[in-house]
What we know:
Blueprint: E1 2-3, E2 7-8, H1 13-25, E3 31-35, E4 41-42, H2 44-59, E5 63-67, H3 71-79, H4 83-86
Parallel strand pairs: 1-3, 2-4, 3-5
Helix pairs in contact: 1-2
Amino acid sequence: xxxxxxxxxxxxxxxxxxxxxxxxxxxxxxxxxxxxxxxxxxxxxxxxxxxxxxxxxxxxxxxxxxxxxxxxxxxxxxxxxxxxxxxxxxxxxxxxx
Length: 97
């Protein structure tokens, strides 16, 4: 699983893109999972970075999954019409005991 940093704006986008591309090289299995739980400050550049990551995953034959999406990022993705493309299906709640 790859973790996004706390800030991904136009200023950090290229560095974040490079870090994710490097981390993807070490990902095992048939999926690329990106955890957005650390993300606090972002702009539309974060969506561009995530789209690049998704394209790279697709190109390598892997499924792309974005987890722990902050509500504001989900809203921004919806504003740009990218929610269906980037947002993961809701995680199933744990089974009741």
